[in-house]
Amino acid sequence: MKINANREELLAAARDALAVSPEKSPLPELECAYLATEDGKLTVAGGNLQVALERRIPVQIEEEGIVIIDAAMLVNMLSKLAEECVTLRVDENRRLEITCGEAFYGVSTLDSAKYPRLDIPFPEDTVTVTNIPALSRRTVFAASETDDKPLMKCVHLIFSTDGLRAVSSDSFRIATAKGSSKSAAQTDMLIPAASLEKLARLVGNKDELRVGRTGNTVVFMKDDFIFSARLMQGNYFDENMMLSRAKPSFMVLTDAAVLRNAMSSVYAVVGEQNRFSFKFSSAALRMTCESEYGASSVEVDIVPLSGNPSGVYWYNPAKLYECLKALGGTMMLKVAENGALLMETDELTCLQVPMREPKPVERIAIKQAAKKEATEKAPKKTAKKEEKAKKESKPKTGGKKKKPADEKKAA
Fold first, then answer.
1. If pLDDT is split at 50, 70 and 90, which confidence band does 389 have?
2. Does residue 96 belong to any structural domain of this protein?
3. Which among 27, 42, 192, 246 is least surrounded, fewest beta carbons within 10 Å?
4. pLDDT digits (tens, 9 = 90+) for 108-133
5. How far is CA 99 from CA 3, 104, 278, in A?
6. Which residues make Cβ contacts (< 8 Å) with residue 44, sequence separation at least 6?
7. Whole-angstrom Cα distance, residue 311 to residue 202?
8. Radius of gyration over alpha carbons of the chain, in Å?
9. One domain, residues 140 and 89
10. Cβ atoms 54, 44 nearer than 8 A
11. Range of the domain at 70
């Protein structure tokens, strides 16, 4: 292989390959970027057996060929070069030579025949989607991270005549977000949250992607960019039924940013023990957080819409804060009779499951004082035993020395 390429274009493609390649893998070839001359262009590919990426960039081909090289190393080398044009050459010993201006790199590569390149199918029917990064940000956080619930580790993409909708849940909360209204179709799929997050890092909100499904694979395409991901099989829960069960006893209006900033201030005292609560009154919402480090409280204004805002409700602060980070703009809070909290904006709806009232917090200062008191009241017998044990452990040096005459007799 010998090609001449634009360094910036090649670097961008190599970075994308690195983004989908595993940092550590039992197969060292998976940590590599796959470079191959195909149809007059250079294909730069990467993947991890669950997702696959292929970028095609225009290059000047002097000699056809294939090479795989550690993706992180390739990005590191290309980012340190300064010239616009870069030349890549592979000799008969699989040694890759990179030349750019006065700079030169020569590195060994792996056997390209061992690279597990995934076959990316071409779907017959596709729809257009946009705002993938925003859709990922609003849903991935709520997906489960435990391996015992593989379906809950996915984001449920639902295409209908109204457009795209995405749902995620970890059993403690539900997030349902609106996607592009142009994505009109009649299908749904379960894409792993990690795969959707990888795609979101590779595209922009304004990028129009064509998406289609072939068997157990979903493919996203644009220009010379192709991204595929394996889908999970199974029945996802009915989020509409779950949300409809949370019938609100009262509703209030507030601002998502104001509420998020207020919670951020009380969140500073979070520890291993947490008592986090929402206390509603007719015109204000007080957030309180208690932990072993102390207590913090802040009050924000609310606008009552229906019912009688009142009561104290307990929530998991870490999970609730993640919900608030995904929300923006004017927000409606709906509190159900069982304490379930519905947070709604134009783009996202989050349902937070309540907790039972946690146990009183045991302060660090109290624990330290109790430990000190227990030490001071320790029985004196324990100290005497320790002193006796130290004496017994010392080697005995007593006994009379033999006189020289006695030593001779003994001999």
1. low
2. yes
3. 27
4. 999 999 999 888 888 988 999 999 99
5. 11, 5, 62
6. 10, 13, 14, 16, 17, 33, 34, 35, 54, 55, 56, 57
7. 45
8. 32
9. no
10. yes
11. 2-114
